[in-house]
Amino acid sequence: MSARANLPEEFNQALRKFTYGFYILTTRKKAEELSQRSEDYIAAGTVSWVSQVSFTPPLVMVAVQKQSDLNETISKSRVFALNFIGSANQQLIQAFGGKTAVSDDALNGFSFENGATGSPLLAACPLAIECHLVDAIHTQGDHVLFIGRVESVTIRDENAKLVTDQEIGHVYGGTK
Predict the structure, then answer these.
(1) N or C: which end of the chain has fewer CB atoms below 10 A?
(2) What is the reported pTM?
């Protein structure tokens, strides 16, 4: 079981872990809020454009392709989680580069738990930040910038080395 940390001390610790690397972005829209589905809908994908926006309040930004399931689901759910990928779990980058396969306890074959916001937190990831959406910037380009207020931080392994783009040689060329 992972411990959820209180803000802002742990938020600062988490921000020091940001790299120019890769993350798995997850979100969930509850079934009762959907007109086309009878079950909760989970969207997940690999992203690489992530940044700190503010210390007070604690805000982060993530860029998501306009045509993706993540874009639509975050826009409707208004929550998301950034799952930080550890160097030992680089296979997550490719595993979440396409459609998301959901079973009762796994996303694309990787176990998860529901976080405080309802967003899935991947057990294979050493750190996760959960956010409530506060703003969406629709750029002229092919991505939407989602700005989220950090509501919860889950630290599973504070000493884990996180995967960076330099480490994997830019094997993934964009965001989902």
Answers:
(1) N
(2) 0.81
